[in-house]
Amino acid sequence: QVQLVESGGGLVQAGGSLRLSCAASTSGSTLSDMGWFRQAPGKEREFVARIRWSGDSTYNADSVKGRFTISRDNVKNTVYLQMNSLKPEDTAVYYCAARRPGYLEFDYWGQGTQVTVSS
C-alpha cells in the first residue's frame, strides 16, 4: 500500500501563490507517475499535472500551463505543485495521486487539501 499525504493548501488572494506538497510512504521504485488533480464544488474531478518518478517528463493541463509547476524530490519521496498567478477558478480541493508501473489509472489517492482563491 502507498499512503499519500498532502499539505500546503489555504486561502490566498487572486494573483498570489501557494505550494502544495505530497509525501509518499514508499520509495519511487514502486511508482511510475505522481500527479495532482482537483475538484471544485459541483464539478467533476479534473487532471492538473503529472510527473514521472524518474526522468524529467511532466505534463500540465492547459488551464494551468505557465502558472503551475510540478516537481519532485526523490530523496524525500515528495512531489510538489507550485501554483502562481492563482485565479478564483483555481479554487478546489486538490488531490495527490500515484500510479504504479503498467497501470493506466492513478490508483492511490491522498485525502485532499483545500485551496481557496479570493477575488
What distance separates the N and C termini? 40 Å
Residues in helix, %: under 10%
Helix and strand composition category: mainly beta
Strand content: over 45%
Sheet with most strands:
7 strands, mixed
So how many helices? Answer: 0
Shape: globular
Number of strands: 11
Unreliable residue runs: none
- Mean pLDDT, all residues: 93
Which H/E pattern describes the elements?
Answer: EEEEEEEEEEE
Rg value? 13 Å
Can you walk through the features of this model?
This protein is an all-beta fold and 119 residues long. Helices cover 0% and strands 50% of the residues. It is built from no helices and eleven strands. The protein has strands at residues 4-7, 10-13, 18-24, 33-39, 46-52, 58-60, 68-73, 78-83, 92-99, 108-109, 113-118. Strands 2, 4, 5, 6, 9, 10 and 11 form a seven-stranded mixed beta sheet that branches. It has a four-stranded antiparallel beta sheet with strand order 1-3-8-7, with no helix packed on it. Strand 9 (92-99) and strand 10 form a beta hairpin. The mean pLDDT is 93.
Can you describe this structure in just a few lines?
The chain is mainly beta and 119 residues long. Helix content is 0%, strand content 50%.
